[in-house]
Design a protein that fits this description.
By secondary structure, the protein is an alpha/beta fold. It is built from 7 helices and 12 strands. The chain has helices at about 35-45, 60-70, 85-95, 115-130, 170-185, 195-205, 225-230; strands spanning about 5-10, 30, 35, 50-55, 75-80, 100-105, 130-135, 145, 150, 160, 165-170, 210. Helix 2 links the parallel strand 4 (about 50-55) and strand 5 (about 75-80). Helix 5 crosses helix 6 (about 195-205).
């Protein structure tokens, strides 16, 4: 029986404008290491076979020397330039991951990724072909109308906050991207893509399985998030 190949695609191309810093959030120091270090280290220690790091076009050389080289990440096979939007960066990572059976798409701004979560995702994607980690929301969610009034209050028990790594059989996700780009070119969609599961749902017609996530697996977007990450990680 041939062993399946798992490739993690770690996204590190964001600008981090809401951090109010000249340094992109993924390269800011969290304790002794840059934020991006922790995600790469998690996959380095995991059962994943390889890692593709997607950096901003101006940061590829920096990542090669100051991140991958400096910290000795052996599983990072390629560092590629990302696009102007997240989904374009994912697509660049997908092209670089050709030959993988499964891909794990992870936001590098989520440094508190645990070994258990990676393992749960890898086990589930082999069975389901598409899965994402998620946690139940703690607050009541309100849907706003165009004037800023409450339009709807969905049932909280069914609301989940999606996280990463989002995991897919490689051919499934690649096909979804191709169909999306084709629909875009034909003017048949104006979908605002905020995660990869959307494309698999809409363009591959595949249900996406939810995996138990972690409330510690936060995404660093604002200075407050950085302070929370320091608390959660006991740095």
């Amino acid at each position: 029986m041939n062993q399946k190949k798992f490739t993690a695609i770690v996204l590190s191309a964001g600008s981090g404008s809401r951090m109010h810093s000249d340094i992109p959030k993924q390269y800011m120091m969290l304790g002794k290491y840059p934020v991006i270090y922790y995600s790469l280290q998690a996959f380095e220690k995991s059962a994943a076979d390889s890692v593709i790091l997607v950096a901003g076009p101006k940061d590829v050389s920096f990542c090669k020397k100051e991140i991958v080289g400096k910290y000795g990440f052996k599983k990072v096979q390629k560092i590629v330039a990302g696009g102007a939007e997240r989904f374009l960066s994912v697509y660049e990572g997908l092209k670089a991951a050709e030959g993988a059976d499964y891909v794990l798409i992870h936001d590098g701004a989520r440094p508190l990724l645990s070994a258990d979560l990676i393992e749960r995702c890898m086990e589930t994607v082999e069975k389901e072909k598409a899965c994402i980690p998620a946690v139940p929301v703690k607050d009541t969610i309100k849907i706003s109308d165009a004037e800023g009034y409450v339009a709807d209050t969905p049932e909280r028990s069914r609301m989940c906050a999606a996280q990463t790594p989002q995991c897919f059989a490689y051919p499934l996700l690649f096909l979804a991207y191709q169909k999306f780009f084709d629909a875009q070119a034909r003017g048949m969609t104006d979908l605002e893509v905020t995660d990869d599961a959307m494309l698999v749902e809409y363009f591959a017609g595949r249900k996406v399985k939810l995996v138990e996530g972690s409330h510690y697996n936060i995404k660093i977007t604002t200075p407050e998030d950085m302070r929370m990450a320091e608390i959660y990680s006991n740095i």
